[in-house]
Amino acid sequence: MAIHDALAADKDSILAANAKDLELAQRSALNGELSPSILKRLDLSRPGKFDDMLQGLKDVRELEDPVGRVDLRTELDDGLILQRQTCPIGVLLIIFEARPEVIANIASLAIKSANAAILKGGKESTESFKAISTIISKALAGTEVPNDSIQLVTTRDAVDPLLELSQYIDLVIPRGSNELVRHCQRKAHMPVLGHADGLCTIYIHSDADKDMCVNVVVDSKTDYPAACNAVETLLVHEDSLSTILPAVAEALLAKDVELRCDGPSKAALSHHLSPDLATKLQSAQDADYDTEHLDLILSIKTLSANSAVNTAIEHINTHGSHHTDCVLTASKETADRFSNGIDSACKFWNCSTRFCDGMRFGFGTEVGISTNKVHARGPVGLEGLMIHEYRLSGQGQGAAMYGGKGGRQYSHKKLPLA
Amino acid sequence: MAIHDALAADKDSILAANAKDLELAQRSALNGELSPSILKRLDLSRPGKFDDMLQGLKDVRELEDPVGRVDLRTELDDGLILQRQTCPIGVLLIIFEARPEVIANIASLAIKSANAAILKGGKESTESFKAISTIISKALAGTEVPNDSIQLVTTRDAVDPLLELSQYIDLVIPRGSNELVRHCQRKAHMPVLGHADGLCTIYIHSDADKDMCVNVVVDSKTDYPAACNAVETLLVHEDSLSTILPAVAEALLAKDVELRCDGPSKAALSHHLSPDLATKLQSAQDADYDTEHLDLILSIKTLSANSAVNTAIEHINTHGSHHTDCVLTASKETADRFSNGIDSACKFWNCSTRFCDGMRFGFGTEVGISTNKVHARGPVGLEGLMIHEYRLSGQGQGAAMYGGKGGRQYSHKKLPLA
């Protein structure tokens, strides 16, 4: 709340600093050096944006304390009690790009989770970042949180040297473009939490409900096409080419989605769609199935009937990004076969890929979405900033007392967690 | 059980192969190229060793199935159900040195956890490794486990190239010397589970019980001095120098432990011990406090009374290896302060550091002890070979239906796990 109040009190000076960033950015945008979407993300004066930042701090305050949660208690022997409990990871390096309001959110998450954090902002938001970070530092000085526990790095070119300091930094969390994530994954000497790509796929099985397919595919593609959880590839069982795909394609074309079709799907759609819609169909190139379009573009591929589920699984495991993939089918058996076969963090059945999100999953806040195979996978909440420690308390016991002939035996009795 | 039965049936050929390894190793040992302890670890014909290997397979079979355990179920909305469940990590690379029997244990753990595994044995156990691995492969061919899911690499120099294949291998588990672990940590492009050092410390507070100190320190040092969880450094509150330390030192010297003391502890012990014992005391060098002796050697350091607990915490966080550290005190408050301050996987109070072990913790089997800050920390059981996935099943819902004016609200209702 100290941070919240300080930011609220200094709104004017923050917006003044932000205006300087915006001015520079507008010039870069005019020169074509900066995309208009980055410009939009940078602007803290947009209606509601500053208040959302303040509300975010209150939301983090309301989250359950993640530190010291006991998830295992075992009596190893009389008076020898083992306990496993959550604790912070240590020092986080959080790197983000244009959105200056993320600094406040991330600082509050680090404090809530009792981690120390080094925050590195993007160069487009330098002035906003400096203003917000100075206010946060001043606010922390009046609290029990050590001021050094949140360090803000504004120096350019500091990222690469930081990524080598594995003796001091335990986890890197990049919040920004795929390029930023990939750069961190390549350079970091410590674990990186996140995902570089979001190439999500939906497979339409032969028994899927047509209306459901229309709803789910249209939402997955058009709700927010630039998001990592938007669908990029549609796999279609060949029996669905004439029964389901035309309605799906019509709805997508009505929303200005470009359809890049393989031969069979283009032929079927050309036959079933009105001529003016059919002329809009594009032909897919091989590269389309490996591309995260992040735009109103969908690649479509047909799967032959005799091995469609297996081919869908193989396609997703080979061309996907292990993020979120979905099957549309009336059969639980088919859904289970699909979900057991794909190697994805999130496996959806009959619902939009867009639901892959920490807020929507009910985690309260989102640190990121991870496609890592260890630590945390899928949408990551505050839990992903925690690890566990073991505490064992005894009455002078030694290990030599146990086992062998006449030695004591471990009881390994499960104890209640409270 | 197929592996168990095949190994039992082919015991003779395995021991014959092992005898070849032993012969070569004995020659290297005579030349001083190989330590006698490696020779001992290599010998599968030692009484009970083969049966232990077979029993280990039965033990793994008895473990609870770790796959598909549901640990979160949430209703996001009517008919939109989220479930988090455990699943295998993917492909493990397990590298081990002299102990040939570990192959069978690790293969069974990989199968139980539904991970694929690439196993790489040490060069000293090449023949044993080949014999056991051929039998395992043949045994798997008669089961539903894909033969390729357990791959055994005998080629020399294969380790470094494998450590670069992060697109295929998800986790490396080195089982062997500190050098092996350090090598993997340095070279691997994927996460490494384990610990390079085990520099464990015990701190004796002023109010500790003398007999308890004697028991715990002697056990921690002498039960198995070559283990990673043996104590290497003893920190002593200056008030305990004359009240507790002499009894501890006497018991250690009686067990042939070399004591490397700082000035104050050496002075106090010289005063309190009999002259013949006092002559055995050594002086510590600075480097001793950074050394994992792995032998009957203990470094002793005195902490001044006015800041002993804080100094102990600082010493452990600076010189320790974040593995297992212990406080001896009658006060729960002091124990908590100590445990909250140290950054160790295992924090012990009034018991031997030797209890840090997967079997002793009741995990049934041990994959290793991790000092990592993410994924798994402390003794790691089968759980450490698992990650989770999210499954969401719906009835055609899209994300655009939610939020905003008139939109649906998420219910985020916690559901029972069963």
From TrEMBL, chains A, B:
<dbReference type="GO" id="GO:0008652">
    <property type="term" value="P:amino acid biosynthetic process"/>
</dbReference>
<dbReference type="GO" id="GO:0050661">
    <property type="term" value="F:NADP binding"/>
</dbReference>
<dbReference type="InterPro" id="IPR016163">
    <property type="entry name" value="Ald_DH_C"/>
</dbReference>
<dbReference type="InterPro" id="IPR012134">
    <property type="entry name" value="Glu-5-SA_DH"/>
</dbReference>
<keyword id="KW-0560">Oxidoreductase</keyword>
<keyword id="KW-0641">Proline biosynthesis</keyword>
<dbReference type="InterPro" id="IPR016161">
    <property type="entry name" value="Ald_DH/histidinol_DH"/>
</dbReference>
<keyword id="KW-0028">Amino-acid biosynthesis</keyword>
<dbReference type="InterPro" id="IPR000965">
    <property type="entry name" value="GPR_dom"/>
</dbReference>
<protein>
    <recommendedName>
        <fullName>glutamate-5-semialdehyde dehydrogenase</fullName>
        <ecNumber>1.2.1.41</ecNumber>
    </recommendedName>
</protein>
<dbReference type="GO" id="GO:0004350">
    <property type="term" value="F:glutamate-5-semialdehyde dehydrogenase activity"/>
</dbReference>
<dbReference type="InterPro" id="IPR015590">
    <property type="entry name" value="Aldehyde_DH_dom"/>
</dbReference>
<dbReference type="Pfam" id="PF00171">
    <property type="entry name" value="Aldedh"/>
</dbReference>
<comment type="pathway">
    <text>Amino-acid biosynthesis; L-proline biosynthesis; L-glutamate 5-semialdehyde from L-glutamate: step 2/2.</text>
</comment>
<feature type="domain" description="Aldehyde dehydrogenase">
    <location>
        <begin position="88"/>
        <end position="252"/>
    </location>
</feature>
<comment type="similarity">
    <text>Belongs to the gamma-glutamyl phosphate reductase family.</text>
</comment>
<dbReference type="InterPro" id="IPR016162">
    <property type="entry name" value="Ald_DH_N"/>
</dbReference>
<keyword id="KW-0521">NADP</keyword>
<comment type="function">
    <text>Catalyzes the NADPH dependent reduction of L-gamma-glutamyl 5-phosphate into L-glutamate 5-semialdehyde and phosphate. The product spontaneously undergoes cyclization to form 1-pyrroline-5-carboxylate.</text>
</comment>
